[in-house]
Design a protein that fits this description.
The chain has helices at 8-15, 71-83, 93-100, 106-117, 121-131, 134-158, 169-187, 190-198, 212-220, 263-278, 294-303, 341-353, 368-389, 394-412, 418-425, and strands at 2-4, 16-17, 30-36, 42-51, 62-66, 200-205, 238-244, 247-253, 281-287, 308-313, 331-332. The protein is of the alpha/beta class. A six-stranded mixed sheet has the order 7-8-6-9-10-11, with helices on both faces. A five-stranded antiparallel sheet has the order 1-5-4-3-2. It is flat.
C-alpha cells in the first residue's frame, strides 16, 4: 500500500509500531513491525518504509506498507488511513504527481501504462525504453536544434535597426531540412511501434472449404476452430490472440466468402467483408490442389488495395495450374502436414516488422497521440524551411518553428492542454 503526500510519514507513524528503530525512520530503509488500530490491537504483521521527497517516485514523501494480501487485512489498513483523512488515489494520480513534480515527462508517464499492458517481450522492451527516456532524449535534441534556429531568426526580427548581419538563409534551411528528415524517419517507425503496442489483426479469408480454419489451428498449435469436409462450417468470426516472434496478433477466422441464399451464412459473409476493411493483414487462402474458382476470383478482387498474402493450401497434393492474376507464385502450405508453416510465419512477421526492430538502438514511435503531434512539428519545420527558402519575412519562419516546438512540447508535456492530461491519466489503473 502506497501513500504519497506531505502527511504520509506522519500518518504512518500513528499506525506502525516497530522495536527495531527510533522514530523518525531512516529514509529508504525497510522495517519490520505491526499495524496497530486506535485501540492498540494488532491488525497485521508488516514491512514498512518511508521514502522522503524528492527521492521517490512521485517526488513527494511516500510511505509504503507491505502487508498480507487478504481482502480483510487490506480493508482494515485502508480504513485506518482514511480515518486520518488520507483519501483513496484517483487513477494514475501517483504518476500524475511524478509528472507534475518533474520526475517523469509526459511521454515517460504514458509508457508506464504501456509497460503494464505489454503483451510481448518486444512490447515490454519498447515501453521500458520509453519510460527510461529514450524517446524523450531524441525529442529534446529536436527541440534544442529548433530553439537555436529560432534564436537566430528572432534576433533578426527584434533588432533590425542594429544592422545585424542577416542570417545565412541557406544554412538555416539545410539545418531545418536535416531536422525534418530525422522527424520523418521517426514517424516511419509508427507502424511497427503501433503493432507492438496495440497488436495487429490478421484475417484468414477465402471461399468455403479451402482450409482457413485448419490454417488457424496450425498457427495456434491447437484445434480452436471446427474443421469438417462440409463447406460453410464456420458461420461467425472466431478470434484468438497469438504471439508471433514478439508481435502480438489477433488471428481471425471467418465464414467462407461466396454467394449464398442461406441467411445465417449470408450474415457470416457480411461480417467477413466488414472485417476486411479493418484488418492489418489478410491471408487470402486458395485451394492449391483444386485450383481457382469464380469465388476465388471474387475474393481476390475484393482484396485489391488491401495488404494481403496469397496462401495456397494443400501443398501435400499435386498442384493445379493458377491462372492470372494468380500466376505470381503464392505461398504454398499444407495445413495437414505443416509444410510451409515456418515460411508463412516468417512472411507475416516481415510484413509487420519491416526491419525496424533489428537494432537495439532503434527508437519506435508507438502512440497515436505522439504521431499526430510529431506530424504537426514536422509541418511547422517545413513551413519555416519554405519561408526562409522563398525569401519571406522572418516572422513567417519564426511562426513555423514555434508550431514545431508546440508539437514537440505536446508529446513531452510542456505544452499539453489540461484536458488532454486528464484524458491520458484517466486510462491508468488505481495505484499507478
Amino acid at each position: 500500500m502506497r501513500v504519497s503526500g506531505s502527511r504520509a510519514e506522519e500518518v504512518l507513524g500513528r499506525i506502525f509500531r516497530t522495536r527495531r528503530a527510533q522514530w523518525p525512520l531512516d529514509s529508504h530503509h525497510l522495517y519490520h513491525g505491526q499495524i496497530i488500530d486506535v485501540d492498540g490491537n494488532t491488525v497485521d504483521d508488516v514491512l514498512a518504509t518511508v521514502m522522503r521527497g524528492p527521492r521517490s517516485y512521485t517526488g513527494e514523501t511516500v510511505a509504503e506498507i507491505h502487508c498480507h494480501g487478504g481482502p480483510i487485512v487490506i480493508r482494515r489498513i485502508l480504513d485506518l488511513f482514511t480515518d486520518f483523512d488520507i483519501r483513496i488515489a484517483r487513477p494514475g494520480e501517483f504518476t500524475l504527481r511524478a509528472f507534475l513534480n518533474g520526475k517523469l515527462d509526459l511521454a515517460q508517464s504514458e509508457a508506464v501504462v504501456d509497460l503494464i499492458r505489454s503483451r510481448s517481450e518486444d512490447a515490454r522492451h519498447m515501453a521500458l525504453d520509453q519510460m527510461e527516456g529514450k524517446l524523450s532524449r531524441l525529442l529534446r535534441k529536436f527541440r534544442s536544434s529548433l530553439v537555436e534556429i529560432l534564436a537566430e531568426v528572432e534576433a533578426w526580427i527584434d533588432f533590425p535597426e542594429d544592422d545585424l548581419e542577416e542570417p545565412d538563409r541557406d544554412r538555416l534551411v539545410i539545418a531545418l531540412k536535416t531536422l525534418e528528415g530525422d522527424m520523418v524517419r521517426l514517424l516511419a517507425t509508427f507502424d511497427s511501434g503501433r503493432v507492438l503496442r496495440e497488436g495487429a489483426s490478421v484475417l484468414i479469408l477465402g471461399r468455403p472449404n479451402v482450409g482457413k480454419s485448419s490454417i488457424m489451428n496450425l498457427l495456434l498449435g491447437e484445434a480452436r476452430a471446427i474443421v469438417t469436409e462440409i463447406p460453410g462450417t464456420t458461420r461467425d468470426l472466431i478470434e484468438e490472440n497469438y504471439i508471433l516472434d514478439g508481435i502480438p496478433l489477433r488471428l481471425i477466422d471467418c465464414a467462407g466468402v461466396r454467394e449464398t441464399e442461406d441467411p445465417v451464412e449470408m450474415a457470416g459473409v457480411s461480417r467477413a467483408r466488414e472485417k476486411m476493411l479493418s484488418a492489418d493483414l489478410i491471408l487470402m487462402v486458395i485451394d492449391g490442389h483444386e485450383g481457382i474458382t469464380r469465388d476465388d476470383e471474387a475474393v481476390h478482387e475484393e482484396c485489391r488495395g488491401l495488404r494481403f498474402i496469397t496462401v495456397a493450401n494443400k501443398s501435400d497434393l499435386p498442384p493445379a495450374p493458377l491462372p492470372s492474376p494468380f500466376t505470381a507464385e503464392p505461398l504454398r502450405i499444407s495445413a495437414r502436414t505443416g509444410e510451409g508453416l515456418e515460411e508463412l510465419k516468417r512472411k507475416i512477421g516481415t510484413t509487420f516488422r519491416r526491419g525496424s526492430l533489428e537494432s537495439p538502438d532503434t527508437i519506435l514511435l508507438c502512440n497515436r497521440r505522439h504521431r499526430e503531434a510529431l506530424g504537426r512539428a514536422r509541418e511547422g519545420t517545413k513551413m519555416a524551411q519554405s519561408a526562409l527558402f522563398s525569401g519571406e519575412p522572418p516572422e513567417h519562419a519564426a511562426l513555423g518553428i514555434r508550431e514545431a516546438l508546440q508539437g514537440l512540447g505536446e508529446i513531452t508535456g510542456e505544452t499539453t492542454p489540461q484536458e488532454v492530461l486528464e484524458q491520458i491519466f484517466s486510462r491508468f489503473c488505481i495505484g499507478k
